[in-house]
Design a protein that fits this description.
The chain contains nine helices and seven strands. With about 220 residues, the chain is an alpha/beta fold.
């Protein structure tokens, strides 16, 4: 790992050293839209599904149940979160279908991780808002999807239809965890779609609480 990657890993391990034990129980109340993403992800035709920034493995477990014929691959920069993910996945009886790796989302090489050049589905759930170089993550993630493949992105929106005080309180609280919602997400996805020939679907969920984008690569 590079020095920058090691520093990022230590930072994330510091944040989640203890939070990982209560992460799933607490995040379900404000990481809205994750199950909606997973519902759209499901397909009997996809052989491999990749999650960028898999955290505790919660999404991978649910994705495995929705895509019963797929291989699931996830990676995270935090070793602490990966330890929690391995425990949860083993408890769910899915260790034979889900592979986990430690990697940097801004610089990962899919073939090095899982010996596959491309996959059918890639998803990023509430991860971009924690990575300073988030645009690099989008580029890498879309490259990991093969022809006709899809990249799903879900993260905090800009709270357009919520009271101003709500946005101020929410964003101040999120900053305590190094979370910074990306106001430029939609225009960045529009640019990425234009540059690559992908088709973009973009939605503001829950009155702008969350942003949801799907990029479909040309076949």
């Amino acid at each position: 790992m590079s020095t920058a990657t090691q520093d990022a890993a230590r930072h994330m391990d510091g944040i989640y050293k203890y939070q990982r034990y209560i992460y799933n129980a607490t995040r379900k109340y404000y990481l809205l839209g994750r199950d909606r993403l997973l519902d759209e992800l499901q397909s009997d035709e996809v052989s491999t599904v990749l999650e960028v920034g898999c955290g505790t493995g919660r999404n991978l477990i649910h994705a495995a149940r929705r895509c019963p014929n797929a291989r699931l691959v996830g990676f995270d920069i935090s070793q602490a979160m990966l330890e929690a993910a391995r425990t949860s996945i083993a408890r769910a009886g899915l260790s034979d279908r889900i592979d986990l790796y430690q990697a940097d989302a801004t610089a990962f090489d899919l073939s090095d991780l899982c010996c596959e050049a491309r996959v059918g589905r890639v998803f990023i759930s509430y991860t971009l808002s924690m990575i300073p170089a988030w645009r690099q993550v989008l580029t890498r993630a879309l490259e990991a999807a093969g022809p006709g493949g899809r990249l799903y992105i879900l993260d905090f929106g800009q709270q357009e239809a919520w009271p101003r005080w709500f946005k101020a309180v929410l964003f101040a609280w999120l900053r305590q965890f190094s979370v910074h919602p990306r106001a430029e997400l939609e225009p960045e996805l529009i640019k990425l779609a234009s540059d690559t020939g992908a088709v973009l679907e973009f939605r503001h969920l829950y009155r702008g609480y969350a942003d949801f984008g799907v990029l479909t690569k040309p076949g």
